[in-house]
Amino acid sequence: MDEPASAVPQFKEPFFKDDVLVLYMHPYNFYSQKILLLLYEKNIEFTPYVMDLLNGEQYSKWFLNLNPKADVPVLKDQSFAVTDSQHIINYIENKFSDGIYNSLKPFKVNSLEFNKLQMFCNILAPLPIGALSLGSFIHDVDLKLVPKPPFTGPLRKGCLGNNEKVLEFLKQSLLEVGVNRAPLMRKLEIQERRKRFVYSRSEYQKILDAIRSVLEFFERDMTAHSQTEWLISNDFTMADIALGLLLLRLYQLGFENYFWSYGKLPNIESYFLRFKKRSACQKLMPSNFEFLKDIWQMTPNKYKIGTGAGVLGMAMMMAFAHK
């Protein structure tokens, strides 16, 4: 009998050797990118597993056992799974902190620099990147955006359809027997509230105004500390990962003219140019074919239960931040 159209697709769980550090992720998911950049900056060996977000693999039973919230990224170190990007960052920094790994939190606890780093990360963490991305596809003409890969052409319309499809997978997951409903109910509430929020032009403007305020804050700080190359010092830190990735997402969505180009925020503009030149950042660029090829080749084949060999298909190009 054919599987019902509304049923959540089930993928068989991939298996890895016990000594492999595995990152369950998607290369265009904002929070996955944060962990990828951290791993690249610290030169940590890991195995990526690209989740098929478009076809609902995050709602497969095996993945819900790893993360009941059905979010990426998830880091699995042997039998230990770490969820939530901030928890993963802390885990990586604590475990890989000896001399052969660069520290992205190089300051003594409670020092002025450490407290400043924490403050900067706390300012950036609450920004709704998923809503920012989704709303840019809806209001792009009004905002005169100039999108860049991967958020160009039919991908933009595809992402809107993808959002509706994944929302249905989420609702269907709540009907599954044995599923932990509390985190999924919370996720559904967030998704539905976000959908209402981003379709309203006036409500979406509040997101843009909040981001502008944050960028203006960092512009002023950079003016006051023009002698340092990065946010805290001449060392690249977690604060730079957080701000740099925000600027990269804004640039790829086409917001650079809206926020910082043409002399609006000159320090932000020059900072972003430095950030883009870092080799770790270059690996995240969609134009970096070697990065995508390596990610693809290192991800084991996935199999949907009852249908034989499955493929990632357009999910590789159409998934984006679902948080």
TrEMBL record:
It comes from Glossina austeni (Savannah tsetse fly). SUPFAM superfamilies: GST C-terminal domain-like (SSF47616), Thioredoxin-like (SSF52833). Belongs to the GST superfamily. GO terms for biological process: mitochondrial fission; mitochondrial fusion; protein targeting to mitochondrion. This is GST N-terminal domain-containing protein. It comes from the Eukaryota. CDD domains: GST_N_family. Pfam families: GST_C, GST_N_2. InterPro entries: Glutathione-S-Trfase_C_sf, Glutathione_S-Trfase_N, GST_C, Thioredoxin-like_sf. Residues 19-100 form the GST N-terminal domain. GO terms for cellular component: mitochondrial outer membrane.
